[in-house]
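Bug #77: duplicate submission created two jobs. Keeping one. Sequence:
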Amino acid sequence: MSAVSPLLSQLELLRVSVDGPVAHLRLSRPTKRNAINDQLITEIHTAILNLPGEARAAVISGEGEHFCAGLDLSEVAERNVAEGIVHSRMWHAAFDALQFCRVPVIAVLHGAVVGGGLELATSAHLRVAEPSAFYALPEGQRGIFVGGGGSVRVPRLIGVARMTDMMLTGRVLNAEEGQAVGLSNYLVGEGEGLAKAFELAHKVASNAPLSNFSVIQALPRIADLSRDDGLFLESLMSSIAQGDDAAKERVRAFLEKRAAKVSKS
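Kept job's structure:
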């Protein structure tokens, strides 16, 4: 394990460590089911913006029995409208920083992935779930509305109709249902999530950095564009990526049979 900067080592509710090219961010409020208060959302934002320079991928997980039970409601009850908007935008800034991080981020999901916890998870680029994971958006039953980007990110994975059902009825999806509708990319055995996430992170970290950056920066933006604009941006990104020296070497390695071909695993 490599040492992290003094700034990251001083965080109180988020533990940051580095394993070679992979940074590990751990939510550390287990007695609160890793519910996100103002301090924790600020620390998440700080960590994402100040990842160690050697990091080429990141893993985010939760200590204890749950990934994240969402917003800490004890900080919400007395906010007025203006304060609520500022608070929501603070979450938006943190999760936008995560989604458009300079490196791919993989979330490990177990136990509660609820409300703001689901918003956090859907900000990551890949999600590995364990059988204990369950997903819910209880804001409708709390008299509130999602405020951490969920109305934008969650429907892109599961559709507006499913999110509407979860918010109106309080429907809870188990790990298998979450995998079936696209909330997770991988479903592994209990206690195997972190190992799988690190396996994926090290694999991703071995890609050309510019290729990874292009995937996580361009794909979500292309999805927001018209067909013609999307195709034009695709041409730009394709040309930039293939012009990179690392990409040229990888193509040469393939042509010279120094790189493995794609095969069924």
